Amino acid sequence: MKQYILLLLSVIFCLGCISATHSDHSDGIEWKFEETTGNKPDVRAAATLVTIGNKAHMFGGFLECFDVNTCDHHYYESVHTINLDTNKWKEEPLRTVRPGARILHGAVKYDQNMIIVKGAKYNIDISNIAFYDDMWSYNPQTNVWTEIVSANAGPGARFGPGVVISESNNKLYLFGGLSPSFEIQNDMWSFNFATRVWTLLIAGSTTSTSIPAPRFTPVFQIDNDRDLIFIFGGDSVDDGTVNAQANDTWVYQRIQGNIV
Asked: What predicted TM-score, i.e. pTM, was given to this entire model?
């Protein structure tokens, strides 16, 4: 199984190597390159960026190696902040208490803080891999990390889960991911920040056709206006022998608590 996961991960991050030269301005909207100043982040992939107010905070990522004989992945654990008004980057001082360097973690905004959930760190041939089973809160005003310790057992260590925050109840929702046993998940959980309790909403299943199939790195977004959570696609392995990527769409109705 591990060799197929390795190939999938290579495909995921190599997508960033593809460049496009065609530009379509038929709708009057176009990309604009922004010049930035300050202490810019090093070259990297698979970092996360969370916007809070007029600033965006980047955490994690890695400089990926593609030749097992010459190098290994290099991971980052610092926070870089860009002021969206001035386009100036700043590398925040590294704190002693902080989450470990990682990729494939969830990152969301909650209560004006950046929340980091799960993730992993592995070497180029995946002979040494660390799965994280943690959650951290970053306060951008004080540059302080605080680990959020849950009151009960939750979804467990994994990388590549879908993570969102519901504004209607201030809970975090987590779906899927890849476990340390290299089993792909499709369970659905919520986390209550007030009680710090994880709740299993929908148990995982490899046979049910009424829930999304097991997957990691899906597109996982919430429509807070309608209180709906959307899943699209993701990575999986079909029968353990064929790399598979999905293009199905699912909607989780949070109030009713079911998937359509």
From this structure: 0.88
Q: What is residue 28's predicted lDDT score, i.e. its pLDDT?
A: 73
pLDDT at 43: 96
Provide the residue ranges of all domains of the chain, joining segments of one domain with +.
2-8+41-259
Whether 80 and 41 have beta carbons less than 8 Å apart is answered as yes
The Cα–Cα gap between 233 and 235 comes to 7
Residue 210 DSSP one-character state: S
Residue with tokens 């809070």: 52
> Which candidate, 137, 231, 254, places its Cα nearest to that of 177?
231
CATH of domain 2-8+41-259: 2.120.10.80
DSSP states along 73-132: -EE---EEEEETTTTEEEEPPPPSS-PPP-BS-EEEEETTEEEEE--EEE-TTSSSEEE-
- How many other C-beta atoms lie within 10 A of the C-beta of residue 85? 9
Write the CA distances from 67 to 47, 71, 94, 101, integer angstroms.
21, 6, 30, 21
Of residues 168 and 185, which shows the higher confidence score?
Answer: 185
Q: pLDDT tens digits for 103-158?
A: 999 999 999 999 999 999 999 998 899 999 999 999 999 999 999 999 999 999 99
Average pLDDT taken over every residue of the chain: 89
Q: Which residues of 115-148 are buried (b: 16+ CB within 10 A; e: fewer)?
A: bbbbbbbbebeeeeeebbbbbbbbebeeeebeeb
Please name which of 156, 150, 137 lies closest in space to residue 97, comparing C-alpha atoms: 137
Pairing of strands 197-202, 219-223: unpaired
